[in-house]
Design goal:
about 325 residues; mainly beta; four-stranded antiparallel beta sheet; about 50% strand
Length: about 325
């Protein structure tokens, strides 16, 4: 057999005995623009051309990378800017440069069946429950979207990234000046809890609540990772220093004992919450920088690189 690569990014397995490919493995050819691992362990990855690929890791062998599938019915969007999975169903929210939030069911695949118009392109999305999402827009306004419309404006400007803990009805927003605020959520509205802080002097680029909700991990544009106490906003340690470029994503392990961080510096770090000085460093993982990392289990990761690569990692913690 012979394997060829097409301009679409697909791998075609050819055989002299057949006029058509024996097998076509769907890949990504354009730059990766977003990724999310949903609660049911489906990894959605979008590329610059508006296409979405899905990898289903819901199997006994979490390190085995499954064959990807094309997601959607071909009605692709323009450049995708953000992705988030819903909490209670298989719905996925996509933000795009058409200044809309696209809500797509896993088995539906129609990107344009349910859309919500926004002031500008969504750049960060967090699920709150059902089809309700908190969204940071390109104009740095933070809003809540529910029932097919913008239900509340939370912050008018300077917001950069958003994260949620749906089970505890908590929402965190990071800002340009390195500050963050925590909000309590009720239905389709949010109000400040009074907990805020400034763990860094640079723009907040990533946020993640621990499974218990007791710790909020923050990452900034300079590569700094700071865990903070959600009860009073104080920093737990300033020693989580390894990265040298923007933090692109943060992910807690299912047991809340470890935090994984990814960065444009091409590295991944796994921090220990109970032993603050202990870190596992995974260097030079993706040649163009790491765009996303998530825990598949307590000791395994999946990462998505701007080089269009998908990798899994077994950790020795």
């Amino acid at each position: 057999s012979i394997v060829s690569v097409s301009l679409s990014g697909n791998l075609n397995v050819l055989s002299p005995d057949s006029d058509t490919p024996c097998r076509v493995i769907i890949g990504i050819q354009n730059s990766v623009t977003g990724a999310v691992l949903t609660a049911n362990r489906c990894l959605y990855v979008s590329s610059y051309d508006g296409k979405v690929r899905m990898w289903n890791f819901d199997s006994d062998s979490v390190l085995a990378i499954p064959e990807p599938a094309t997601f959607g019915d071909g009605s692709y969007m323009t450049h995708i800017t953000a992705i988030a999975g819903s909490v209670e169903n298989d719905e996925v929210a996509f933000g795009a440069l058409d200044d809309k939030l696209h809500l797509v069911g896993k088995d539906q695949g129609d990107f344009n069946a349910r859309t919500v118009a926004t002031d500008s392109a969504p750049v960060s999305i967090a699920a709150l429950g059902g089809s309700t999402f908190a969204v940071v827009l390109e104009n740095k306004k933070a809003v809540i979207i529910a029932d097919g419309q913008v239900a509340q404006e939370i912050e008018p400007d300077h917001a950069t990234v958003i994260a949620s803990h749906p089970a505890l009805s908590l929402l965190a927003i990071g800002f340009d000046d390195g500050t963050f605020r925590i909000y309590s959520v009720s239905g389709a509205s949010a109000k400040p809890t009074g907990v805020e802080g400034q763990p860094t002097q640079r723009q907040v680029t990533a946020l993640a609540f621990s499974p218990s909700g007791e710790v909020l991990a923050t990452g900034d544009a300079g590569g700094k990772v700071v865990p903070v106490n959600t009860a009073d906003g104080t920093s737990l340690t300033p020693r989580w220093v390894f990265h040298t470029a923007r933090i692109t994503s943060l992910s807690w392990s299912p047991d809340g004992a470890h935090l994984a961080s990814s960065s444009l510096d091409r590295h991944i770090a796994v921090w220990n919450k109970d032993q603050l000085g202990k870190v596992v460093r995974i260097r030079h993982t993706h040649t163009e920088g790491v765009g996303y990392v998530a825990f598949l289990s307590v000791d395994s990761l999946v990462s998505v690189g701007y080089d269009s690569g998908i990798k899994t990692w077994k950790l020795a913690l």
